[in-house]
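Batch manifest line 112
LIGAND: magnesium ion
JOB: complex structure
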Amino acid sequence: MKKVEAIIHAYKIEEVKLALVNVGIIGMTISELKGFGNQKGVTTRYRGNEYKVEFASKIKVEVVVDDEQVDYIVQQISLAARTGEIGDGKIFVRPINNVIRIRTSEQGVAAM
Ligand SMILES: Nc1ncnc2c1ncn2[C@@H]1O[C@H](COP(=O)(O)OP(=O)(O)OP(=O)(O)O)[C@@H](O)[C@H]1O
Ligand SMILES: [Mg+2]
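JOB STATUS: finished
ARTIFACT:
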């Protein structure tokens, strides 16, 4: 199992959600966060000090999927989240050791 973590534009969340629901994803978690990437935001001045790093509001989508689904899910998220401009976001793929459904104590793929 892998967790696909995508940090995307907040205004893209509905499109990404629909894309994932349409390919049969059965659970996902989202959260609001702030971050910056390669461009480090714009340089601004505040009370004489120069700030080189500006955080931007983003949304993180987390989906745990079977190993074989990872490439397809990454592709679906990319297609839905891409504008082609800088700041479209980034996807991180991480290994997941186990999943436990609390209600039934099912584990692993059965608990997803
Ligand atoms: N190396 C990183 N580590 C952790 N989070 C990152 C990293 N790079 C980007 N992020 C997160 O992803 C968000 C979007 O990044 P962004 O799309 O600007 O990446 P980028 O590498 O600058 O690509 P682009 O050139 O397309 O803008 C950031 O606001 C930050 O939250
Ligand atoms: Mg960037």
